[in-house]
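Please decode residue identities from the backbone states below.
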């Protein structure tokens, strides 16, 4: 059982990185918020079928509200902001760099609102990880175009802040509640905000074809259910700041996938950046052996 638990962080990073690949397949055929609300509605329907199979427990109206708020932030605002910024011309490299600020921001917020102590070694790991992310993404910086605007950068920053706050909100209010039911209500929140924004800003363009169907199926089952459940487990069992550090690995894994699937270039500089990022995450997520904290104590904070 311990071996399975240790594998969860690596599996989470691998699955989460595929989200950017799925988005690349989907975005030419649907508007971002329209795609997202359909994705969340389908995920909600699948979870409704899962609830009786796993005998998921009720979490009460108060926890349901907190879960929905976390969903608004982690799914609706975060994904909506990133998808919208990229759709409107922000280069993926810049989007990835801004998203790379999330672990450091999450560490600050977790320290303020959860009382999590961030050690010097942890801060060093966060800084080293950020340096690695910048190195991995540096070859993409030459693609700067007119899409780098106050609006697109602002949307990305709002997305990162929302993900950080949503992660802390999840840990603070509903970390110990039933995971399936919490996730169900999260997607109610994510669906509500993306549906409303799509009504206000989009035309609901949705061109059904093989690529879009594949991307939707992958993002619903692998990302919205598989990866999110793993993230909820990580948040419940560990400190939020340490969990957030795993997001530093996503750009490197995504670059590897794009190299395999789309024949994108993978330079020696990026390989060095991947090594730096991995070292930084190892520093940031390593717990001091002298003062181990039982999982039950962490979960009850």
């Amino acid at each position: 059982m311990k071996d399975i638990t240790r594998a969860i962080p690596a599996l989470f990073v691998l699955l989460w990185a595929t989200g950017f690949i799925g988005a690349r397949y989907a975005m030419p055929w649907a508007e971002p918020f329209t795609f997202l609300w359909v994705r969340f509605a389908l995920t909600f329907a699948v979870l409704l079928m899962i609830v009786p199979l796993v005998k998921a427990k009720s979490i009460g109206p108060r926890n349901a509200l907190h879960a929905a708020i976390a969903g608004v932030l982690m799914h609706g605002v975060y994904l909506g902001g990133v998808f919208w910024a990229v759709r409107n011309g922000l280069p993926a490299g810049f989007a990835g760099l801004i998203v790379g600020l999330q672990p450091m921001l999450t560490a600050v917020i977790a320290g303020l609102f959860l009382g999590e102590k961030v050690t010097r070694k942890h801060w060093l790991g966060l800084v080293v990880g950020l340096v690695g992310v910048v190195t991995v993404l540096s070859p993409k910086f030459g693609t700067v175009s007119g899409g780098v605007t106050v609006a697109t950068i602002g949307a990305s920053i709002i997305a990162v802040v929302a993900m950080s706050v949503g992660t802390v909100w999840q840990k603070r209010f509903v970390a110990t509640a039933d995971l399936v039911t919490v996730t169900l209500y999260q997607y109610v929140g994510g669906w509500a905000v993306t549906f409303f924004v799509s009504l206000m800003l989009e035309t609901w363009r949705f061109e059904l074809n093989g690529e879009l169907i594949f991307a939707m199926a992958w993002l619903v089952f692998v990302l919205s259910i598989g990866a999110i459940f793993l993230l909820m487990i990580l948040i419940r069992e560990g400190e939020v700041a340490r969990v957030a550090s795993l997001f530093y690995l996503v750009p490197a894994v995504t670059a590897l996938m794009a190299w395999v699937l789309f024949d994108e270039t993978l330079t020696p500089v990026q390989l060095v950046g991947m090594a730096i990022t991995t070292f930084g995450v190892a520093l940031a997520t390593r717990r001091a052996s002298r003062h181990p904290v039982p999982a039950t104590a962490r979960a009850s904070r």
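Observation: Residues 288-301 have pLDDT under 50 and may be disordered.
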